[in-house]
Amino acid sequence: MKYRTRRTFTLPLCLLALVLTGALVVSGQKPQGEDELKPGSPHVMQPEELVKAIQASSGPRPVVLYVGPRVFWAQAHIKGAENMGPASRAESLEKLHTRAASLPKDSLVVIYCGCCPYDHCPNIRPAFQELQKLGLSKTRVLYLPKSFGTDWVEKGYPVEKGE
Amino acid sequence: MIRRLGLVLLVAGLAFLGYMSVKQRVTRTKGPAAATAAAPDISLIDLDGTSFNTSNFRGKVLVVNFWAAWCAPCTVEIPQFVTLQEKYRQQGLQVLGISMDDADDVLRKFYPEHKMNYPVVAGDLKSADAFGGVPGLPTTYIYARDGRLKTRIVGATDFSSLEKEVVALLQAGGR
After folding, report:
1. Please, what is the average pLDDT of chain A?
2. CA of B25 to nearest chain A CA: how many angstroms apart?
3. CA B143, CA B130: separation in Å to the nearest integer?
4. Does the pLDDT value for residue B6 go beyond 90?
5. Residue A60: its pLDDT value, please?
């Protein structure tokens, strides 16, 4: 009787453990390239670091490429950045490819978007992968957890407005 | 009895996982509320080509949602805005969707597919600036009946809080 009770109890528990393990594995799976763009990864740059690099009086300046929608660029963008258009679209990715292909392979390139929360941005991952394919190994992605407006503009970092 | 307990544990575990996955995706950020700012008086054109002015909504509680069909956290919210509009239309709630950087054909397909029951316009820099800017998507502005800005939400909306605020504003005064 005792054995039977234990067996009856064990089966659902095993099932639960199996489901939990499976769910954790599935939730941990990210699209290709996403893991290497987690905050803390060497490919990811914090806004404060970019501000210092832009404002530094000596040393090579990073090439800053914007890969988001035009309307947000027109509202405000990082001073000195170049607009490539949303990298989720083929024509913008082509523009990015052409621009990046003209750069020395050891250039420090910073790409950013900030159209929506970082984890959901449809532009930074294709842009990053494109630059990786071109061999620009010093490419970094600017970490804007909520948006460009919240994490850059409203913090008072340097911006330009208009097209 | 024990088998039933196991089943309950299993269901509870699944529910917990579901909750955690939603919680991970939805974080609410409440931006600075410029309580004195007023709803802009701006002319817009909806998807049917009908021109209207935002001043037409004066006297109603106005919820303006900046969104895009390509923005995953935005599209998750659309059914909830639809429900809110349906539930409080008679009491004087007006939801307005301003889509940012969506292709026209995408927008025209999205609208009926999601049974959207409030006006949607294709936004641009002019409309973004008129409402005080769009820091990122989604961004939602809530205006009282007298046109004063009450709240700006940047990022995902907590619809429970939004509904409470809408109800309070609807009850605050008539036209």
Report:
1. 87
2. 8
3. 14
4. no
5. 82
Predicted local distance difference test score (pLDDT) of residue B2: 58
- Report the residue of B101, B131, B141, B154 to disrupt the A interface, i.e. the one with the largest count of A CBs within 10 Å: B101
pTM of this prediction? 0.80
Any idea what DSSP says for residue A155?
G
The tens digit of pLDDT for each residue in B76-106 reads 999 999 999 999 999 999 999 999 999 999 9
Task: Test B9 with A114 for CB contact under 8 angstroms.
Answer: no
- In this predicted structure, what is the pLDDT of residue B23? 39
Are B44 and B51 a contacting pair, CB within 8 Å? yes
Q: Do A9 and B6 touch (CB under 8 A)?
A: yes
The phi, psi pair for B49, rounded to 5°, reads 90, 10
How far apart (Å, rounded) are the C-alpha atoms in residues A75 and A32? 31
Nearest to B139 by CA among B100, B103, B111: B100
Q: How close A122 comes to chain B (CA, Å)?
A: 8
Q: Name the pairing type of β-strands A109-112 and B149-154.
A: unpaired
Helix (H, G, I), strand (E, B) or coil at B75: helix
In this prediction, residue B33 carries a pLDDT of 42
Q: Does B137 lie at the interface with A, CB-CB under 8 angstroms?
A: yes
Centroid of chain to Cα A18:
32
Q: Which residues of A touch B19 (CB under 8 A)?
A: none
Could you list the beta-strand ranges (E) of chain A: 44-45, 63-66, 77-78, 82-83, 109-112, 139-142, 159-160
Give the model confidence (pLDDT) of A48-94 as tens digits.
999 999 999 888 889 999 999 999 999 999 999 999 999 999 999 99
Of B6, B21, B135, the CB nearest to A147: B135
Separation between Cα atoms, residue B110 and residue B128, nearest integer Å: 21
Residues with pLDDT less than 50, chain A: 24-32
Contacts of A146 in chain B (CB under 8 A): 29, 135-136, 154-155
